[in-house]
Amino acid sequence: MSISTAHRVRPVAQAGPTESLDDTLREIPLPPYVTGEDVQFALRAVVVHAPQRWSGGTICRNDANPHPCRLHRWGARVLALRGLRDADIDALIERGDPAASLPPRPSA
Ligand SMILES: [Zn+2]
Predict the structure, then answer these.
(1) Which alpha helices (DSSP H) does the chain contain, by range?
(2) Contacts made by residues 17-25, CB under 8 angstroms, sequence distance 24+
(3) Where is the stretch described as Disordered (predicted)?
(4) Quick check: pTM over 0.70?
(5) Which of 19, 31, 47, 69 could form a disulfide with 60 if both were Cys (CB 3.0 to 4.6 A apart)?
(6) pLDDT in tens, 40-57
(7) 61 CA to middle of ligand 1, Å?
(8) Could you give the CA distance from residue 29 to residue 11 in angstroms, rounded to a whole number?
């Protein structure tokens, strides 16, 4: 004789609110080694995702997120890895030319 237990399938509430919360803050992973192609992507990213003054503050010209948006931050970090200083990056953004030639790599 067996007692059949009523199967109660209860939906398990997934408690993981932190995952989606900081989704917009999560950084795009940097390449382990910055290739010339990465640098071109990065340059395009910072130029295309340039800051734009708006009544509410400074936003990304491309996706209207608060500036610097995720892609802009990624691009700036890749360019920094490539050896560019903040001033160099700012100058490139100001120039607005995604095909601009970069200063030579500081260390061989
Ligand atoms: Zn953007």
Answers:
(1) 17-21, 36-48, 70-81, 86-95
(2) 24/65, 24/70
(3) 1-24
(4) yes
(5) 69
(6) 999 999 999 999 999 989
(7) 7
(8) 34
